[in-house]
Every structure is written in structure tokens, then in C-alpha cells.
Amino acid sequence: MHVESTVHASKAPYYYVPGLSGHPVRASISLCLTLLGAATWINNWSGGFWLFLVGILSFLVVLYFWFSDSIRESEGGLNSARVDVSYRWSMSWFIFSEVMFFAAFFGALWYTREITTPLLSDLDHRVLLWPDFSGAWPNQGPAGTVAPFQTVGPFWLPTINTALLLSSGVTLTIAHHALRASKRGSAIFWLFLTVALGFIFVACQAYEYHHAYTELNLKFTSGAYGALFYMLTGFHGFHVIIGATMLSVMLLRLMRGHFTAEHHFGFEGAAWYWHFVDVVWLGLYLYVYWF
After folding, report:
1. Nearest to 236 by CA among 267, 196, 276
2. In order of start, what are the domains of the chain with their CATH numbers?
3. Model confidence over 35-45: pLDDT tens digits?
4. pLDDT digits (tens, 9 = 90+) for 89-112
């Protein structure tokens, strides 16, 4: 049976600085193998996929041992309030970088819809470039260059997914309040429900992709609409997987007796990330599926 951590920040050193570690070098090598494998894979080199797979698995192993060390430092009472502030600023800037990442793709979608498509359909461009080009969105591209496809509407699967994510945000907030009230059993239950809702969302999106690809003929090559649809929803789905995995780790830590009502930034940081994922999905739901 695990004993709940009772270490307080006041017992920690002024500012704990870890010793020399090989984790950053190993992570860099793993990421290099991953990118090299991906580049050779899409260029039809037979060993590219396996190199990509080795890189991904190596990176996951590095993260496992790196995060294990960080957890031991935290549970060992080495992280003072000053380290806690550093973690909070680091997570805040990380989420800000993710905001800018999605802003770039939302900007690409807006620019394509509101500027590029109408511009290419005006009289001058239709005479000089593509006489049969339509300025409607989504468009099929110049005549004969994009296979016919259908768009994905908001009903019913995207709306169900929206309900799933919004519900997960509520259950996560309840879990957080339960942890702050030292109700560990309740926190575990609501966090488990949050993780389950997250992975159900991923399963529903996988089904949506299968339906779009096989029945709507919507592919990554389906003009600007197809490319932007899969880039936005696909990257968001990837972030949902990351967030659900982070929350799964927090769930295991809760079950092992980690965190206290006063000191639980690991939980809070994962919760911040999950709420960010929720907000991004609301933007996707409105701008991709409705407008």
C-alpha cells in the first residue's frame, strides 16, 4: 500500500537543480531518428518505416525514464515553491506555443476561404488560369484536377464529440476540486471518467475518418478543403491522445498516493492542457463543421 506524500515545499531546498543527465541527448537522437525515418518513409525507402518506428519507441522510453526522475524529485521533497513557479511558467509558455501552432492552421483556413478562393474566381484569374474555377467554398479545385468529394457536416458525430469533450472538461474540474478537498477516491473516479471520455472521442474521430475516406471520398488530396480538414482535425486528435495519456499518468499517480491538496501541479498542468484542447475543439467545431 502506498503512503500519501506529506512533503511540503517549505522543507525543500531554495531551488533544486538536477545533476548532469543523458536524457536530453537521448531524446535528441530519438527525435532525429524519427524525422529521418519519416522523411525516408514518405520517399518510398523500404527501411524508412522501421527507422521511424525505432525513433518513436526510443523517444517514448526516454520520456518514461525522464519523467520518472522528475516524479521522484517531486515526491522526494526537492521541489520548492520557486520550482513550482518555474513549472507553471513553463507550462504556460508551452500552451501558448500550442495556441500559435493552431492559430497558423486556422489562419491558413481563413486565408484560403476568404481571400485566395474568391481571388482566383474573379474575371482576370478565370481568363488567365482556370476558366471553370468556382469561388464557392468548399471548392473542387480547377475542373478535372480534384476527384469529387463530399464535405463533413456537424451532425451527428462532430456534435457528439463536442459533447464528449465538454463533458470531460466538467468531470476533470470536479476531479480537481475533489483533490483540493483531499477526497482522493472521488478524484480518482472523476479523473478516470475524464480519461475514458477522451479516448472515446479518439475512437469516434477514427470512425469519422473512415466514413469520410470510404463513403465521402474525402482525402488529404481533396483540394484545400481536404488538406486543411485533416490537418486541423488530425493535429487536434493527436493532441487529445497526448492529453489523455498525460491524464492517465496523473490517474496512476493518484492511485499510488501521489499529490496532496496543496501540492499537485502535475495534475494541474495536465488539466490546463486538457482545457486548452477543449477550447481548440470548439473553434474547430464552429469554423470547420458549421461555417
Report:
1. 276
2. 17-77 (1.10.287.70), 81-290 (1.20.120.80)
3. 999 999 989 88
4. 999 999 999 999 999 999 999 998
